[in-house]
Amino acid sequence: MPNWTDEQLNAIEENKGALLVSAAAGSGKTAVLVERVIRRLTDKVNPTDIDKFLLVTYTNAAASEMRSKIAAAMTKKLAIEPTDTRLRRQLMLIHKAQITTVHSFCLNIIREQCSFIGLNPDFRIADEGEIAEIKQEAIETALENGYESGDEGFLLLSDMLSAGRDDKRFSDVVLEIFDKIQSHADPDEFLSEVENMFIKQNGADMHKAILIEEAKNAAQYGLECTKIALSELETEPDLQNAYQDAFIDDLHNATKLIDAINTGWESAIKTACEIKNARLGTIRGYEDKDFQEYIKNLREEWKTNLEKIKSRLICQDDEEHKKSAQLIAPAMKALIFTVRQFASIFAEEKLKRNAVDFNDLEHFAVKLLIKDGKPTPLALEIASGFDEIMVDEYQDSNSVQEAIFNAVSKNGKNLFFVGDVKQSIYGFRLANPYIFLAKYHSWQDRETAQDGQPRKLNLTRNFRSRKQVLEATNYIFENIMRKALGDLDYTEKEALYTGADYPNKQDERYKTEVILLDTQNKDDDAPEKIMLEAQMVAKRIKKLIDDKFPIYDRDRDITRDIVAGDIVILLRSVNRKAYIFRKALEQIGLSAETDETSGLLSSSEVSSIISILHIIDNPRQDVELIGALRSPLIGFTEQELADIRTIDKKAEFYDLIKNSAEQGNQKSIDFLSMLDNWRKISADLPVCTLIQKVFEQTNAMGVFGAMPNGKQRQQNLLAFFERARIFEKNSTQGLFRFTSLLRGMAERGEDWQAVQVKGGGAVKIMSIHKSKGLEFPVVIVADCAKKFNEQDLKAPILVHPELGLGPKCRDIKRMVQYPTIWRQAITIKARREAVSEELRVLYVALTRAKEKLIITASSARMINEIKKLSVISQISPIPTYPLTNMHSYLPWILLPLLKHPKADILREQAGTHSMNSLAPDVFDIKIVQPQALDKINEVISFEDLISEDIKLDFDLPEKSDALKDIPAKLTATGLKESFKVHETSEETNAIRANKKLRQPDFTQKLRGLTPAEKGTAHHLFMQFCDFKECEKPDGVQNELNRLRDMHILSNEQAEAIKIECIENFFKSKLYTEEFSNSNVKREFKFSVVLPAEEYYPQLVDFSEEKVLLQGVIDCLLETDNGFTVIDFKTDRVTGNMTLKRAEEYKPQLIAYARAVEQVFGKKVNKTVLYFLNDGQTVETIF
Q1: pTM summary value
Q2: Distances (CA, A) of 237 to 246, 294, 365
Q3: Which of 63, 156, 867, 1052 is the most exposed place for a label (fewest CB within 10 A)?
């Protein structure tokens, strides 16, 4: 039985009313939810059947996992009580349990009641691509209707949004409004409220209140800065004499402005306009320039805030607002009409296609379940079937879903909500955390609630992380999270408390690291800045691995050395940055598993297929045709295409290809023959079958599979094939429709997600959003100086679910455009909500770590940033106003740290003193300069070079002929005898290996592992297994299971491991005698520069030429007398073949020995080949 905490037991057993469980990160909420179900099922007095629960989660995967966990818990309980027939019956009913997503629940209701909402029984859910296509057609129709109507308001709106160009901005605004109002239970009613706001002369009271509150906060902060300045000036009489009068004047002005703001809108405007800032007095010869600058910065805070109040917050009186309302009202009414018309056309077209989208599922369910604000008879009937409704991840629900939950409940009394509002990070999906917060702030604590009253309780004990991680997170968030930022005060109830038991509790190595990179002259937006940070992170990861940082394996109750797969790098956005971090890791010999959102359509392999589909549909498209010809599938070179173009520079390229074929160009003849065949069959074949034919005739799977990252490329091709199959199944068939869909997606910047091929033993790089719900031994939260994305606040018309629309006002007579009160208020409100969500994203990132948390940031103005923030840190507590106006995570992290007693390194830069002696000693803070980073030797690939500006020198010396076929880089594994130049013929240049391409297999999963892939699997096992464990009986099998569970080995790789062969190695004389007396280095990576003539005798006259030799040695045994190089081989050899095969590998082993001696300056005594399949050993003594 688990040892439940009191908090968890209360959540499990509470049944006296609706319950809201605020479950902190790592608090075991899933386990609590499962146990609550089990106890309700087995209650001796009032048991509940499993099919009397409605358990709602937010993904199908989560629902499936929840069902599995409940079934597993039942099975476990039955093992203890095998005679419990009732529980056995519940287990049989588990498949009938309503453990589902919101959308699946709504879908079931709609399927049964479709006739009441005008749907055919066989309606389908359209995919994203089809919905986008229907939307585009609907918006075009709606705008055409508007123009044809000649409505003055519509034309004014068009003038505002189109700016004399196309209607893209216009259509984007309509679509955004439509999408955002879908979170309302009745979108049309919301539009009516918004329309009424513009019709009313004074429909902005709510908006003014927001602006007044913001102005008051800004003025209050300015007043605090002024008071600090006056206090500080008392310590410097000379500066006081010069500056005091101006600061006293500021003090009076700030106080007067705050009083006026408290009085009302008009008074605030009048007073703000009257305030003029006095000039600072002059002082000469004052030596403490830093202190003088500090005082001036304090005054600048007041002046900046005053200007913001006057120009952006309370800048329009009532009369001006009325004029703005009159000017903008016709356009806003036209906009609302257009949104409604679009919604009608969109719905009508979906109905014609017998299709619905996910928003429809929720809104149709609301129509069936609620009428005039009350549950319908259908809702009451459904509600009678549920004893309890349990909603997981409740912080991510919206108003529509909330209405559904309430409608099918028993007057709200059988609701059980669990979630953590501090982890509500899906605002872009229209999640509304304020639904959770409304209950959290209004419902009574469990201890004080009366029977039948709704109540709440908190789960605060964290069973995931070490104390150092939790205390670091608590320290940061207790200083910055509050209702105005994060929407919740981070009190003792919200803090995280240690629940996990770890060894080495006081080990200094587990402190949270904050590493700040001052990139100095690198611009914050320059690519070099993030490259430097990536290199710094890679270096820190390598040191963790080299130092054998200890990781506690809870399942085995042992402490082991860290491996790359224990580490994750979290980024706010992985686009264009995950690649940089991956390259930095690869440069030091570490692999990385990225979570880049690179799309399917933008991958080179799928782009090639798309180009071919476009020219099958219409070959007279030069861009697509040249793209297809230049692709690896057709294989025209740039020179060949240039020669064809010279035939006629003005002709279409399709005609030129035909001309080239007529002149006897065999490539052109073959291509046109293949294209003609594709065009003939395209009229009769489904798109997916056509794509299959293209794959087969171009050998696409083999061609792209042989390229770097080939497995990923093959998966992308198969995923594209599957998308085409779904398209044919769900919508109007045909190549033209499919290519139109692809073209439309490209124009809108849309894409399908590429399928990720996962591997083990690699550092993970992912977005913070993707990491939610996961945990990792070591977490590096990187790129914390990245600016928040605030582009949405620059939209021509802002949309807010409460405040409505925020337009600018265009006064044609005066030829001016300016923001309205509506827009200013929505800007403030929307930004406050956005930065609150960003703070919650940071909370999610920090709470993913189990044992070690590292925070990194890089900035060209790091020292200036610290100095600027030190001004704010002098105010205690940290004032809300500047916190809500930050633009990255970095200030939120630095401000609490500037108060920390162990942050002397920060205060030395800022010239301030410690202010919080009670802070936990859990931080290790460093400021790093670029020159302190060891240069990482980079191997530049061709793909890297093509993006660089390369200057070509055509005055090459005579040695160019000798060098033209010589690579700059060699790999040791490529030095087999057949590719070693001097061992074949001194007169023959090195030949290139011909890769044998595997044939594709469309209809089913790619067949088993190739011999090379099986070899890779065995090498992975030997790299990551625990040698000591493998010595034990069944130790190899146990280690294999562990590596599979850790995802270092995939299931396919694990099944390919020959356990008996591995066991024989650990019993061999080589292992028992050699390994026990040596220092073992596994997977030793090297890069050395050697004379090229050693591998290319034709370069004997060019002794200055070098070649980079790279490789990875399986095992390197170090003794006092020197090294032994061991290389594992999975070749199947017998008898005399062993020595012959060993001779082939001799150049590779010589290269290994040469590299080891150069790296360590120490002799290699011998090399050993160990053939795993046959247990044979071949030694070479040096």
Answers
A1: 0.72
A2: 15, 16, 73
A3: 1052
